[in-house]
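User: I'm writing a short report section on ligand binding and want a predicted complex to refer to. Could you take this sequence and biotin and write out the structure as tokens? A short remark afterwards would be nice.
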Amino acid sequence: MRNEILEYFRKANGGYVSGEQISKDLKVSRTAIWKHINVLKERGYIFESSTRKGYRLIYAPDLLTPLEIESVLHTELLGRHIVYYESTTSTNEEAKKIAMQGAEEGTIVVAEEQVTGHGRLSRSFYTPFAKGIWFSVILRPKFFPMEASKCTLMAAVGVCRGIHRLGLPAAGIKWPNDILVNGKKMVGMLSEMSSSMEKIDYIILGIGINTGIKENEFPEEFRETATSFLNEGINVSRKNLLAAVLAELEAEYKLAQTEGFERVLEDWRKLSITLGKEVRVIYSNENYIGKAVDIDKDGCLLVETKEGIQRVLAGDVSIRPVDAPIPQR
Ligand code: BTN
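Assistant: Sure. The structure tokens for the complex follow:
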């Protein structure tokens, strides 16, 4: 109902809308309309009212409601169906639930805030109210399950390009799919899949982009290593950023489906900040240094060491600059 009310104000484009007209059209009382407008005010919308003319919308906050997203979206598939939460546990968890119930490909789950936003192995990810874009995309690709791991590289390309479009050309991809700006992490991703041996049922691409978190607002553990658009000097429109990311991601997804992953991997290489660098690989009991020289056709990182080329699979592998401290286990 609130979205329908907002639609009137959008169409009026800053002009007055009569409360009586809305209540007639939507078949609800004037008091009910007034209550909805009050809730919108509490959420940051600013209205001017006149006893004779009704209400006028002066300012709409940068929320990621379906209505706000749809007003700037140019995709054919991704985001054409939106599930929106002001607050939820984790958009990945919600996306999994509805994917299992048959949600259509391209559906996105968006939340202003996540209470238990996380990465792999339940590592926490800070996702405060309206200070980032916390969302998950449901894909149902036709390719074989063994190809799925490359979707995470594809997502990194889409998100990185979307970030470039909104004014941060310095953003680059740290293998496999973190996005860093000036050495600090701005985006984290969590991909999850359900499949049989031969067919993918669904892939969930969970993406978290820090937009409005100030340096001192990050929890202590992330303060040194995380950044946001605001920290990098840009007051970004979250809905425009989401629309750009979805458009770029859709383009890469189409490419992967029509031509295979070769072009996607090529795009990934161009945006990589890992290739050509000395890295330390930490995996289980292994810990070695080498030069990241390429990714192979499966998206594995190829690291040149004294013993030869090592092929590193995405998973619980930590890739860090050689001069970074070695984490204690
Ligand atoms: C990481 O730790 O780098 C991965 C973090 C992934 C966070 C995103 S936010 C949207 C989606 N929901 C989650 O709970 N996780 C992903």
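A remark for your report: The pocket of biotin is lined by residues 90-92, 114, 117-119, 123, 125, 127, 134-136, 188-190, 206-208 (CB under 6 Å). DSSP finds nine helices and 15 strands in the chain.
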